[in-house]
Amino acid sequence: MLKVESYIEEKAKVVHSELKRYMENLQGVPQPLKESMTYSLLAGGKRLRPILVLASAEAVGGKEENALPFACAVEMIHTYSLIHDDLPAMDDDDFRRGNPTNHKVYGEAMAILAGDALLTKAFGIMTEGLKEVNLPYEIGLDLLRECSIRVGAEGMVGGQVKDILAEGQGVSLETLQDIHRSKTGDLITFSIRLGAVVGGAKESELHSLTGYAERLGLAFQIQDDILDVIGDQNKIGKPVGSDEGKNKSTYPALLGLEASKEWVQTLVKEAKDLVVSLDEVQSDRLLMIADYLTVRDK
Amino acid sequence: MLKVESYIEEKAKVVHSELKRYMENLQGVPQPLKESMTYSLLAGGKRLRPILVLASAEAVGGKEENALPFACAVEMIHTYSLIHDDLPAMDDDDFRRGNPTNHKVYGEAMAILAGDALLTKAFGIMTEGLKEVNLPYEIGLDLLRECSIRVGAEGMVGGQVKDILAEGQGVSLETLQDIHRSKTGDLITFSIRLGAVVGGAKESELHSLTGYAERLGLAFQIQDDILDVIGDQNKIGKPVGSDEGKNKSTYPALLGLEASKEWVQTLVKEAKDLVVSLDEVQSDRLLMIADYLTVRDK
């Protein structure tokens, strides 16, 4: 197994157990709601976002235990967004990561409420996490405010709306990038910035890590589109070509497959250069993760 | 016009303009999402929760301008919960306050996302508000954490699930109270506690105001059930008897109409007594609001 894969597997396990603990510790929650939340949260997946939180915190010298609540919070936000995106009124997906989607198992009402509850819990966990780290008041509050912007109407939720509005329409490369910058990029960028701030990053480090994050987020999305064309259905957990079937604009469709692959390489190189330039940052894991994104097959 | 009604009308206007300002200031949000959020947020309603935030803050000597962001945040949370509750998968309501519900105007996908965005924005606004008030870090964070608990799986969202599970079943008075404590009570209690803490309440004051809030929340719910039996459809904005039609358990159905009315009176008296007992609290408005709840007809 590659070094990066064992790192990701190890950290995914840490995140998984902690997410499980949060679910088990919920007090006075009706059983079907708890089950519905837990079902999607513990369904697996790459755990990319929480791992980015941990890797980013450690890169600037922070402790994993301090970053862990924030890692779990972003995974809850990611999971809530997937549950709501899969709903019949939205993407109407029956499967996610090879398993029936939340509403197929628990019904639409419970799926909507499980999403609501995961989003709400994420903010609670971040406030708990902030009490444990030694950050100035303003900086802690700014993190929560940034979260609200990056995952709300001005970020992720707005991106989902843009995506819905663009469906069935030929969009320009610029529009496609704008959709992804908010729909998937904002949470990825936030994950890395969150880890960095909690880990005690300096302003200049935060700036470079943000650049790394933005390139990584875009590369990740392009690679997702590429895998939808050339991937292995068993590995990606959904039928290959499903974007095309839905008449969705993708990078391979707009740019061609080769140019898309090249762009991923360029973005990853730029991302890595930004991190390498930081003297006091332990860049190994962030470099590994950036490389991993170009070779992953799921 | 009664003194309390003009107070409520005046404060509702203050809250309305501020909510409008928040919506206008949203940056880079797709127009349909912005419209959908604004539609429900500015649809009117009693504005009970934000007014409780303001009244509670002022009662303990706080400034209205400091409490206003928090008042707007709880109204956004309340509005998000109404949008999601009205969805076809949940209560499937076509009208709210006499107007078509959000999903009837903007479609289900947009309604789900507008709710998500309002909830997310609420947390952002509270963090901004906390930067303006002079509170110890821990207390500020504890408020956000309490919000997450009271409106999430352990509170309001859990209450909605309990309500769904109880539908069509005869429930005991104890179960009914438990449903309402989380479904509607938790946000009302949080509104009053939020205003009190932001306004600078002492521990003993906060304790009594919490007792006031819990009684008010219950009285409010019982009165809602009473109005569903005896109210004026034009004033309450939905058909009279709609709870019975849905086979929902209500206080009048379990206790009888007269006993329900008496219970409201008892709860309001207890709530008022708790506030009156506080020496340094300007109780006038809180007493007025408690009385208003028993005489309101919508």
UniProtKB/TrEMBL annotation, chains A, B:
Record-linked Pfam families: polyprenyl_synt (PF00348)
Cofactor: Mg(2+)
Substrates-to-products reaction catalysed: isopentenyl diphosphate + (2E)-geranyl diphosphate = (2E,6E)-farnesyl diphosphate + diphosphate
Single GO biological process annotation from the record: terpenoid biosynthetic process
Entry's Gene Ontology molecular function annotations: (2E,6E)-farnesyl diphosphate synthase activity; metal ion binding
Record InterPro entries: Isoprenoid_synthase_dom_sf (IPR008949), Polyprenyl_synt (IPR000092), Polyprenyl_synt_CS (IPR033749), Prenyl_diphosphate_synthase (IPR053378)
PROSITE patterns: POLYPRENYL_SYNTHASE_1 (PS00723), POLYPRENYL_SYNTHASE_2 (PS00444)
GO cellular component annotations of the record: cytoplasm
Keyword Metal-binding in record: yes
Keyword Magnesium: yes
Keyword field: Isoprene biosynthesis, Magnesium, Metal-binding, Transferase
Leading EC class: transferase
EC number: 2.5.1.10
Family: Belongs to the FPP/GGPP synthase family.
Record's protein name: Farnesyl diphosphate synthase
Species the sequence originates in: Melghirimyces algeriensis
